[in-house]
Design a protein that fits this description.
Elements lengths: L1 E4 L5 H12 L5 E8 L2 H11 L9 E12 L5 E4 L3 E9 L11 H22 L5 E4 L3 E4 L2 E9 L7 E9 L16 H4 L8 H5 L5 H21 L1 H11 L6 E6 L2 E10 L5 E4 L4 E4 L4 E3 L4
Parallel strand pairs: 1-2, 2-3
Antiparallel strand pairs: 3-4, 3-5, 5-9, 6-7, 7-8, 8-9, 10-11, 10-14, 11-12, 12-13
Helix pairs in contact: 1-6, 3-6, 3-7, 6-7
């Protein structure tokens, strides 16, 4: 067990962290008042190779992130209105979760998105979520949460789950860098939403944290034992199925009708000439004007 908590962090955060440790959900914690990026902190630890298996899962938490990272090169600042953290997990062969298994690789981000969706639905019923492939969570037509998964070549069996949830305010999303290969698709307008805006009252972000951590750990176990249930849970919430979508194929924008996800977690799209199976990249719904 290793717990590092900075001075002057949020007391509600300390209470939540201590409860998660007492319940055996976490094996170690690094809680800071401020950091550039909790994902970067976790990646730094991975590259140092200083983490024993009995220290995982490890939570990296900060009250403020000044250079958080998202998919496709997006960066952002998180303050008191958002919950942002990283969870470092072990997906070793001993746990039957091999990084070399392509099905597991594709389903892992989907499973994390499902966990966030379930936690929101459980805590704020009757609020309903939708999932935009591969791992964005939507409520009331806007994005409320996103996930960034990262690993290292030195230790591919360990994965950093970076999570951001708009709890009390829906921020403006930064643009994708112009040199991104998916700029034409990913730069489309996304309407952000917050939990508080949808339910009509403020929410303590650290009340959200405990439920999300619980759901992530439970859903990852489900991914090992019953991956088909993960696929079904995503299909029930899929935002894009049946809609016209845009995506990038071999460096060029293309579009078609989304057919949903395969059993391996790829997104199937019927274009004018073929069915394309996307395993990565940006896919957005075509907005009719």
């Amino acid at each position: 067990m290793s717990v590092t908590i900075d001075d002057h962090v949020n007391p509600a955060g300390i209470t939540c962290v201590n409860r998660l440790i007492a319940l055996g959900r976490l094996s170690s914690v690094h809680y800071q008042r401020e950091t550039a990026s909790t994902n970067s902190d976790a990646i730094t630890d991975l590259r140092r190779g200083a983490l024993a298996d009995d220290l995982l899962p490890k939570l990296y938490l900060a009250d403020l992130q000044t250079a958080g990272r998202g998919r496709h090169g997006r960066t952002w600042i998180s303050g008191d209105d958002a919950l942002t953290f990283s969870l470092l997990i072990n997906q070793s062969p001993d746990n039957n979760m091999t990084a070399a298994d392509p099905t597991h690789v594709n389903l892992l981000p989907i499973a994390v998105a499902i966990a966030i969706a379930r936690s929101i639905e459980f805590s704020f019923a009757p609020l309903q979520t939708r999932l935009k492939w591969p791992n964005d969570v939507y409520i009331d037509g806007g994005k409320v949460a996103g996930v960034l998964l990262e690993t290292t070549q030195q230790d591919p069996h360990r994965v950093v789950l970076g999570i951001g949830i708009n709890v009390n305010q829906a921020p403006s999303l930064p643009a994708v860098p112009p040199d991104s290969a998916t700029h034409a698709i990913a730069s489309q307008s996304i309407t952000p939403k917050s939990i508080a805006n949808s339910i009509g009252r403020p929410v303590d972000r650290y009340d959200v944290l405990e439920t999300v951590i619980d759901q992530i750990l439970e859903t990852l176990s489900e991914l090992v034992d019953q991956p088909g249930q993960i696929v079904t849970a995503f299909r029930q919430r899929c935002l894009l199925t049946g809609h016209e979508v845009q995506f990038v194929k071999t460096g060029q924008p293309d579009q078609g009708t989304c057919l949903g996800i395969t059993d391996a977690g790829a997104l199937s799209i019927q274009t004018a000439s073929e069915v394309v199976h996307c395993v990565s990249g940006e896919v957005n719904q075509v907005r009719r004007r």
